[in-house]
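seq:
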Amino acid sequence: MPEHAAASRLCFSGLCFLLQILLILLFAVLVRYSPEGSPEPCPPQLNCSHRSQDPNFLQPRFQDVHVQLLLSFGLLVAFLSRYGPGSAAIIILITVFSIQWAVLMQGMLFFFLSGKISVGAQSMVSADFCTAAVLISTGAVLGRVSPVQMLLLALLEVTLGTLHEFILLRLLGVSDSGGSLTVHTFGAYFGLMVSRVLYQPHKDKRKREEQQDKGHHKDVFAVVGTIYLWIFWPSFTSTTAAHHDGENWAVLNSYFSLVASTVSTFILSPVLHEESTPRMVQLQDATLAAVAVMGMAGEMLLTPFGALIAGFLVGLITPLGFRFFTPVLHSKLKIQDTCGVHNTHGLPGVLGALLGTLLTLLATADTFGYRLELLFPLVTQGSRTVTDQALIQLSALLLTLLFATLGGCITGTILKINVPRCCADTQYKESPGLQEVKLGTVGKKGFLGLRQRQGLGIFLQLPPLAAAFR
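struct:
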């Protein structure tokens, strides 16, 4: 056992070292500062048609998006008492690696100029959006993959996600500034398919216990994470929206969706659960779903009452999904969704894409004004009709589901076949330290007390992560 633990540590450390050295070398050869902030017009080689090029516009919103990744997403996975802050540490690792890799992958397709990748506020926002999809996927497999597997998942998903985004935004001309398709839908179903491939029947009972623990554990992480979502989600949705008034539409629609979805939770919670007041985890789920549904439609002519209706409906659908559809995922489809990303990102993302398709049919010069050229330049140029654009928006949803499904299956197969040769800790072999914790456990309070006394021993609560960090 000590030899196995040492080998796992070296495997993980060595992989991090090699990946970081590779990234440094690639940055040295390929990456340069972007000219997007210069007074000259934006070079035609860059993807400047849709996203704002004003540095004063992007810089504060880039900071908001980055805070959203590190704090909101990191804290939202830490509410699981079984995994605790150890999950937040792994999320930070995945975030910092994914951002670097996304800068390179997205730069090759979107920001390649004169043989170099141009890096600025715009490219960093795009990298953060790509990283958000990876973090959503990790929520579906949290607790059943090792840190090595998470790194490989990020490596593959960033690559496939960038290709998927290029096809949708550049080749098909789809409008999806807030990421209903490219972030929420793709990230959720990619992670679910990885979870399906990695499904292990004898651990199904363990996962059900974790889901129950998630429902009853009141943790400050869920409170703080939800507050940060409320603060920064509108900026996340509007950062890449069409500039001028279109940006204001995205912010306002996001806020209206948030408030309506939260009220829905208070309406439905007493019906589905014994508690009269929703748990903080349920409010967190409503917050995630409310903005996921605004990803495509937020910058369109939704109107305030339309945003309220969309938020209200998704606020009802999400808890119903946890109550009725999640058990079907486990029992029938053999998908273990640790953090419920299907209900908080997948379904709302699909609904957001359908809503965006409907609003596209209303995209005329009379209703959208000058914003029509910002949202659908090919329509104003006469290359497409509004109906054609709506059909393309709808086909993009089907393409996203297909891309995420195939990509998740391929990634899960790679993780399942190759990684155990390097890190056998994915087999849930319990260490003496974990057995000691179990022997010392006297109810949940005793368990938590022992975990607090052991300090860094919190990683013993992460069976697949334990060996890599001991």
